[in-house]
Amino acid sequence: MNTIRHIIIPLIAWALLCQPTRAQQPTFPLPTIPETLTTTEQCLQYLLMHYWELYDFDDTTATNQLVWEQGFVNFIDIMPVADSMLCEQSMALYVEKALLTDQRIQRFDYLADHYLANRHSPMRNDIIYAHLLRQVVAFYAKPQHKKTHAARLQRTRFLLENIDKNQVGTVASDFKFKVDGKGKQHLRDIKSPITIIMFFDPQCDDCHRAMRQMEDSPLFANPDINILRIQPSQVKRQYYVTVTPSFYLLDQDKHVLLKDVDLNTLSNTLPLYLPSSHPQE
Fold first, then answer.
1. Mean pLDDT estimate for the chain
2. Are strands 225-230 and 194-199 parallel, antiparallel or unpaired?
3. Dist. CA 18–CA 13, nearest whole Å
4. Residues 96-117: what's their mean pLDDT?
5. Sign of the CA dihedral running 34, 36, 40, 46
6. Is 124 within 8 Å of 117 (Cβ atoms)?
7. What is the CATH number of the domain that holds 227?
8. In the predicted model, is pLDDT for residue 102 greater than 80?
């Protein structure tokens, strides 16, 4: 069945790439999609809603923990093609199984942070992460869990509130900043086609190194670019910054194009958004 193959084969291929070369190495047990399901949407829904049914969360061996990791990577890799409702429904089923013991919670938190929150992860995705955190909050807020997990509930709510700030595609939160000789100005009043916000710490060696690299690069001398250097403490209510230097890329209307990336990612992506990169025909 072609529609099933379009979903299952990439997953199996990815799983095989994640596996060591030893023979008989366990792999994540994917559900078998019924032949009666004939559309891609039906297959995707079945796959995600039954995704974790065959995995044994009670097996705490190191090998099975690696299988969990493999399964999680596959799981979040196909989330972007699911709608928000299916995404959250399937994540709710995952959370119900994954948060039942402290040992599972520890592994769950590690995988989510390592793959979805780490800005150096190629799978980093704040929107998917927020979907997952909403289900974690819902789980911990249930009467049977709320008392036992009160601290975790509070931490997750705090994290979700901050992760939701300034998502890619949304309008960046406005703030005031000082302009030499001109008093204060609002972010929204900048007229440049491209705005880069660099969050930095004056005591951060990596920040000063990044500044020198930007000053030496012709890319950042482009007149279409306005670069703001802001200390996170100045905008801590509007922006969630945990590491410096951190860069946000905004378009002319202050929509977020890139969020919390390093200089290398910014440098590689910036040319795609410069007006000069899209000449008029």
1. 89
2. parallel
3. 9
4. 96
5. negative
6. yes
7. 3.40.30.10
8. yes
